[in-house]
Design the sequence.
């Protein structure tokens, strides 16, 4: 293992040195035009970096399917849909495909089923195996056909959505058809036939799902190879079906001849497909076929039948974000979106902008990306200065470049280049340590410094005037070189007297320009403004910014100066572009408020049509002076980046423009940069009303007190989305039109009323959209509404009527209150009598209870005294007598304990603290056994006990102990009120889901007026002689509560003197409290 590591490290060092050698080598070959990729990843808000599918819907939203959720993108921010258990969410977070039907529903396949999302309200319906709406949860792809049929490819076959049944049915891949079960991909050709990519090959089926043709996987000639087929793509224009395999490369099926052409990776062929694992296939609107592989993006060259390959490069931020390509999509504006394992790359296939930059392979023409100074010599060689690595000399005819710096030529004194110019065979290079003069053969003729008369060695700009003099701008003044005599002229004293007005300030000269009339313009930094030297009359004009004068120059940091064909001077500053009218000395300003990309202006070029091109910190802007229309270019248009550099703007004799920045050099012909003339369209994204989200609020009415209304909008043009300017206003308020690049607005504390929000967009091409609008209203408070006014009128009318009949109503009111008072007195009298009776019952109850408690206590006390007395006698107490006395005491203790338990149980029952223990019980057996234990007790009173059930058995859920207790209480109560010679009868009757138990006696009976009160806690039975029988009265109260706890009922049927019948109704299965 140690040897392997050592070899790897040595190999890595050799490889790095080899790349460095390539960068410094004198001649560098270049290949095809590079593509500039603009990248998105998780840092911009996407839920996860693995992008398995990209889709643009009919409204313009771009959807991304990842391994951790579904994402909707509007160019500004992401809306993420995740799986949530038991909520309105997608079927699974692992997304495999997305499509849209004619109703605007978004169909999403996942490894957990299929989801249908309604974007109007974000309502989601899932289709899974568990609800029998689809046969497999492992959904690979979804296709909405030309006939608006929704097809889903799964590992168990092909499924068709039935809109009427709202479920999927299998149309291909039954159990006996294994080859048609594992379907990875599905597409439809222009004839309506369906093409399927499967584990074992490709199948062509009709729109009625009948198999037409099979292309199995195999290793022979005219075959697809042996790998699983991950992708099928129908290219109807060229008559091919493109097939992507998991391990056998790319295949092309000729639909006319069925001939198969296969493309595989060849290590020795740079034009081969870069990997045999094909992730996706897409043909764009310009006819290019793009193939995403596990190791890069490939573009098919139709004429040469090979591929251009694009890879991720760790040193190039504008290369592919990752080599593992998962998905491809072309949006409505022609941008290609590439989904990878590590995010998204976006590029424009139609970009006419060249990009020269540095890199570690032979596809790059610069040795450093930070560019300062651009010049094309008379032979067409392009000289490009860099920040720290000297000069690159590019032969654009042969696509080669060579470098000139101190490491190659020691006479090249400094590698930090600031500007380049030349004339004829002579080239001048401005550096941070002097001026370098050389001829076209690259021979350095001389180095100039302060020793040679320069005012400073840090040279920022050089310009050859119409007389052949070289003007040299430094960080501390101006020098002029006579190229014929090699004499350096210092004119600083002349300028100082006018610029600084006696103050000791530095003359930092950033740019020098000579106009058509021979005047010299000096762009100064350090807040020194613009200086104009007129050599004819030897005068100097000085322009500086004034906060009180809107027609003064916009800023005192002047970076670049140019002139159009009409003689207007264009001045770029650190805060905007200025057009100087020479006659009036007044400036017209252009800032971001006028639509330019950024206010920091680095370069100003005038094209052959007099359009103005400026480089900034946020891209390039074109201004048409005739109508002030602005077009903005950004990274997605092919720029090296959005940030550019000073002294890196140049126009050659053919009218080609060059702009250098922090990531290389761009060149283009202005007429090639034709932006779309299509109007942008503003769409409303969402509305937040007091933080509650709405998808549409048009014509909605919101309640009084609505405090915050936020509106989000966007234009579905992703090449310049964040450069789009919006103009909006809210009609119904005093506010005017607001111009901004923000895509959202919030209104607070709106007054009740009707409102209309109107917005339009101006894209980077200057195209203005139609106005989009939404109307809503805020209801007034109720006291200001129309209903309230009607109520006010009615109140006035009612007041008049009320006043008219006031006396009459007062009389009626007195009468009514008098009657009510009388009724209240009568009710109070009844209540008083009832309370008196209750107190009487309570007194009787406690008297009887005291008697019941005293009797056993007296017996126990007497027995104990008798025992103690007998024990004092000499003969003592006999054993049989002692046992008898103890039995007497024991029985009375039990009687006393039973009475106390009844009191406790009665209290528990009253306070709902009694809990039953329910079990299945044969109620017939339980009642019979309980009654049998009472026969001796009843017989001892001279009463007959008859048990006469109508059924043999009946099983119910009950607490057997408590039901037994109830039977004992009822039989004991009957025995108490039945005279000697009487009869007690127990019957049981089946009532299907209930059972009826009746305990009847031939006793004294109960008056009907006491039937309801007999089960009350303080109520006691009164016999025929109106006498209260002895006893606590708790037995029937406890019995009543126990039966009710069983969800049963108990009542009495009796007449005074005719006996009583106590009836219990019990349910078979009570719904009550139980252990």
Sequence:
């Amino acid at each position: 293992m140690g040897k392997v590591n050592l070899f790897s490290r040595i190999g890595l060092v050799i490889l790095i040195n080899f790349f460095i050698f390539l960068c410094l080598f004198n001649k560098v070959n270049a290949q095809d035009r590079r593509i500039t990729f603009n990248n998105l990843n998780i840092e911009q808000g996407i839920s996860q970096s693995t992008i398995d599918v990209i889709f643009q819907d009919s409204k313009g939203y771009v959807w991304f399917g990842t391994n951790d959720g579904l994402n909707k993108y509007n160019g500004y921010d992401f809306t993420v849909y995740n799986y949530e258990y038991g909520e309105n969410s997608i079927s699974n977070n692992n997304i495999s495909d997305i499509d849209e039907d004619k109703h605007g529903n978004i169909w999403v396949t996942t490894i957990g089923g299929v989801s249908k999302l309604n974007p109007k309200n974000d309502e989601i319906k899932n289709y899974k195996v568990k609800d029998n709406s689809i046969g497999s949860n492992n959904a690979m792809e979804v296709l909405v056909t030309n006939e608006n049929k929704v097809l889903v490819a799964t590992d168990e076959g092909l499924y068709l959505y039935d809109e009427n049944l709202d479920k999927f049915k299998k149309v291909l891949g039954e159990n006996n058809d294994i080859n048609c079960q594992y379907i990875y991909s599905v597409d439809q050709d222009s004839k309506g036939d369906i093409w399927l990519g499967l584990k074992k090959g490709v199948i062509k089926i009709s729109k009625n799902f009948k198999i037409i043709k099979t292309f199995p996987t195999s290793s022979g000639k005219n075959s697809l190879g042996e790998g699983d087929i991950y992708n099928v793509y129908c290219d109807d224009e060229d008559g091919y079906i493109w097939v992507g395999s998991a391990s056998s490369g790319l295949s092309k099926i000729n639909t006319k001849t069925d001939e198969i052409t296969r493309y595989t990776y060849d290590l020795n062929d740079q034009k081969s497909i870069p990997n045999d694992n094909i992730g996706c296939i897409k043909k764009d609107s310009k006819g290019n076929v793009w193939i995403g592989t596990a190791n890069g993006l490939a573009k098919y060259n139709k004429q040469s039948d090979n591929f251009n390959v694009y890879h991720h490069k760790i040193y190039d931020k504008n290369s592919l974000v990752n080599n593992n390509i998962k998905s491809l999509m072309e949006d409505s504006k022609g941008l290609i979106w590439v989904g990878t394992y590590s995010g998204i790359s976006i590029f424009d296939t139609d970009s006419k902008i060249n990009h020269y930059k540095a890199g570690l392979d032979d596809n790059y023409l610069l040795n450093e990306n930070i560019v300062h100074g651009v010049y094309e010599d008379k032979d067409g060689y392009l000289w490009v200065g860099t920040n720290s690595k000297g000069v690159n000399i590019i032969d654009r005819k042969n696509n080669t470049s060579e470098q000139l710096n101190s490491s190659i030529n020691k006479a090249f004194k400094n590698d930090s280049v600031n500007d380049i110019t030349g004339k004829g065979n002579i080239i001048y290079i401005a550096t941070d340590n002097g001026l370098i003069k050389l001829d076209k053969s690259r021979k350095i003729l001389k180095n100039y410094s302060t020793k040679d008369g320069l005012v400073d060695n840090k040279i920022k700009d050089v310009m050859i005037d119409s007389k052949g003099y070289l003007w040299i701008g430094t960080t501390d003044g101006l020098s002029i070189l006579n190229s014929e005599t090699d004499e350096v002229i210092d004119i600083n004293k002349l300028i100082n007297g006018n610029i600084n007005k006696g103050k000791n300030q530095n003359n930092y000269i950033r740019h020098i320009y000579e106009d058509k009339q021979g005047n010299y313009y000096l762009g100064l930094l350090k807040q020194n403004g613009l200086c104009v030297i007129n050599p004819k009359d030897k005068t100097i004009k000085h322009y500086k910014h004034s906060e009180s004068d809107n027609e003064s120059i916009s800023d005192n940091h002047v970076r670049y100066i140019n002139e159009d064909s009409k003689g207007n001077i264009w001045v770029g500053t650190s805060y905007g572009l200025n057009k100087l009218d020479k006659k009036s000395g007044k400036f017209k300003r252009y800032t971001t408020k006028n639509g330019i990309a950024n206010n920091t202006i680095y370069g100003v070029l005038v094209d052959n049509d007099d359009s103005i091109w400026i480089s900034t910190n946020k891209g390039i802007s074109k201004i048409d002076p005739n109508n002030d229309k602005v077009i903005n270019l950004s990274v997605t248009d092919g720029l090296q980046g959005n940030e550019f550099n000073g002294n890196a703007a140049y126009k050659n004799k053919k009218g080609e423009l060059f702009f250098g920045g922090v990531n290389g050099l761009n060149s283009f012909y202005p007429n090639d940069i034709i932006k779309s003339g299509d109007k942008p369209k503003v769409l409303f994204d969402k509305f937040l009303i007091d933080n509650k989200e709405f998808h549409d609020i048009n014509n909605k009415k919101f309640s009084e007190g609505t405090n915050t209304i936020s509106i989000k909008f966007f234009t579905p043009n992703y090449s310049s989305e964040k450069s789009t300017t919006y103009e909006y206003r809210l009609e119904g308020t005093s506010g005017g039109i607001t111009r901004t690049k923000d895509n959202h607005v919030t209104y607070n504390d709106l007054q009740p009323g009707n409102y209309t929000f109107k917005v339009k967009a101006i894209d980077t091409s200057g195209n203005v959209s139609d106005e989009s609008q939404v109307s809503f209203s805020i209801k007034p408070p109720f006291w200001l509404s129309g209903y309230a006014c009607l109520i006010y009128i009615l109140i006035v009318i009612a007041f008049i009527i009320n006043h008219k009949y006031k006396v009459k109503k007062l009389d009626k009111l007195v009468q009514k209150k008098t009657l009510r008072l009388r009724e209240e007195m009568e009710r109070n009298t009844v209540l008083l009598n009832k309370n008196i009776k209750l107190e009487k019952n309570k007194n009787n109850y406690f008297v009887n209870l005291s008697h019941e408690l005293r009797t056993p206590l007296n017996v126990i006390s007497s027995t104990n005294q008798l025992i103690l007395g007998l024990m004092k006698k000499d003969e003592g107490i006999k054993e049989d007598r002692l046992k008898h006395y103890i039995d007497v005491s024991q029985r009375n203790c039990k009687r006393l304990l039973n009475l106390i338990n009844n009191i406790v149980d009665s209290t528990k029952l009253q306070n709902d603290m009694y809990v039953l223990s329910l079990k299945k019980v044969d109620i017939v057996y339980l009642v019979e056994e309980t009654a049998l234990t009472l026969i001796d007790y009843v017989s001892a009173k001279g009463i007959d006990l008859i048990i006469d059930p109508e059924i043999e058995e009946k099983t119910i859920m009950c607490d057997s102990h408590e039901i037994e207790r109830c039977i004992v209480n009822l039989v004991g109560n009957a025995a108490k009120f039945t005279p000697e010679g009487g009869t007690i009868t127990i019957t049981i009757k089946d009532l299907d889901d209930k059972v009826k138990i009746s305990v009847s006696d031939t006793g004294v009976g109960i008056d009907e007026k006491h039937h309801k009160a007999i089960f009350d806690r303080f109520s006691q039975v009164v016999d025929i002689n109106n006498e209260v029988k002895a006893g606590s009265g708790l037995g029937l109260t406890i019995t009543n509560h126990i039966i009710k706890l069983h969800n049963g009922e108990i009542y009495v049927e009796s007449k005074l003197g005719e006996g009583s019948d106590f009836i219990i109704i019990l349910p078979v299965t009570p719904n009550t409290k139980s252990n």
About this structure: Residues 475 and 673 are 36 Å apart (CA to CA). The longest strand covers residues 753-762.
